[in-house]
Write a structure and sequence with these properties.
This protein starts with a helix and ends with a strand. It is built from 6 helices and 23 strands. The strands form 7 sheets. Strands 3-4-5-11-7-6 form a 6-stranded antiparallel barrel. It is of the alpha+beta class. The longest helix is centred in the N-terminal third of the chain and has 18 residues.
């Protein structure tokens, strides 16, 4: 029978659908740039001490010695002689200023700076940071910061009550820092790069090395340990590493990490990794609740008797234990594991005790980490 154009097109679509479901699907992957960093591509932390002025009476109190001393020193440098006792600092606050400077930042680059009060100021709203030198760990000045603060909180109050939203003693100056000195580092002069993974895993490190070698066309990359992969720069990329980095950092891999269960007892949060497994086990979990209630009763003597009024304590004790049956729990996949734990009807805090007990019995095949 000869197929018409419509039937032929329909047969083609059906064939494509069958091939899509029959052929093996590729594993999910992530980019190398999302799970690792390269040597030399990093930020440098800067810090400095400064003064915020222009506050509406919300600055440091009069007993803040370091704020008064800082104000006097600043006035002296400006040629204004003033006594420490004459300074009023309620509109001034001492602050610490921090910033993160990329290694590629050059003189003139603007950085966002964070400002936080170190005294007893109640709010930095409306303040202006005076010129502050930001230094690195080597003691050299790399950035100068100055400008009006952006504060995301507000605080107000009176003699008997106060009200606040978010934090008003921390602020940000977008683009308030100007780089004055660059980091003495030449990225393109490197002959070898080191890739540092955020999570240690031998399988992932070896997979990254093999994927990079296939992309670069030679044995240039090798895994040296569970967290590091060293890459020898190919000859065609000498003194020109940007094209190499752009091609390598976007390679997709499938990270392989150890099975782990993370528990936060403060909030009752339980997170199970995708490779967590539980051997067949029978679990019964019931809550034991004990309620103690104290009350007092007054014993009143009869009229014209010689007795006295006596207060007698009374204790009511109630013990209630839930009766729950055994449930079979087995997890060959993460969905089966979740379904089995949900069948027990336990709360997240109950799951913490269940998971600990399963680990003690040897049925939980994962690392149990409590944070």
């Amino acid at each position: 029978m000869k197929l018409t154009g419509t039937r032929l097109f329909g047969a083609f679509l059906l064939t494509m659908l069958v091939l899509q479901f029959c052929l093996p699907q590729s594993a999910w992957g992530v980019r190398i740039k999302d799970i690792a960093t390269f040597s030399g591509v990093r930020d440098n932390q800067l810090i400095g001490y400064g003064l915020v002025v222009g506050l509406a009476g919300t600055g440091d109190k009069k007993d803040s010695v370091f704020t008064i001393s800082s104000m006097k020193n600043m006035m002296d440098r400006m040629g204004i002689g003033v006594s420490s006792t004459a300074l009023k600092i309620k509109n001034v606050a001492s602050v610490m200023v921090t910033a993160r400077m990329p290694v590629s930042a050059k003189p003139g680059t603007r950085l966002d700076v964070n400002v936080a009060s170190v005294g007893d100021a109640t709010s930095l709203t409306g303040g202006v940071l005076l010129q502050t030198a930001l230094k690195g760990v080597d003691g050299n000045t790399y950035c100068l910061a100055q400008g009006a603060l952006t504060v995301g909180g507000i605080s107000a109050g009176g003699a008997a009550a106060t009200s606040s939203k978010n934090i008003s003693t921390v602020g940000v100056i977008p683009g308030g820092g100007i780089v004055e000195r660059g980091i003495p580092f030449e990225f393109n002069q490197q002959d070898r790069l080191t890739l540092n993974m955020r999570q240690a895993d031998f399988s992932t490190a070896q997979q990254i090395a093999e994927r990079m070698n296939a992309a670069m066309g030679g044995p240039y990359a090798r895994a040296v340990d569970a967290m590091s992969v060293q890459v020898d720069v190919p000859p065609q990329y000498k003194n020109n590493l940007v094209p190499l980095m752009a091609s390598v950092e976007n390679l997709d891999i499938s990270p392989d990490v150890a099975a782990k269960v993370v528990v936060d007892e403060k909030t009752g949060t339980v997170v199970l990794g995708r490779d967590v497994r539980i051997s067949r086990a029978a679990v019964a979990h019931g809550n034991l609740q004990i309620t103690v209630r104290e009350s007092e009763q007054v014993s009143q003597p009869g009229p014209f008797s010689q007795g006295e009024t006596v207060v007698t304590p009374q204790t009511d004790l109630n013990v209630r234990e839930e009766s729950r049956r055994l449930h079979m729990v087995e997890g060959a996949t993460l969905q089966e594991l979740v379904d089995g734990l949900n069948a027990i009807g336990a709360t997240p805090r109950d799951l913490i005790s269940i998971l600990r007990t399963l680990q003690a019995s040897g049925s939980l095949h994962a690392v149990l980490e409590v944070i």
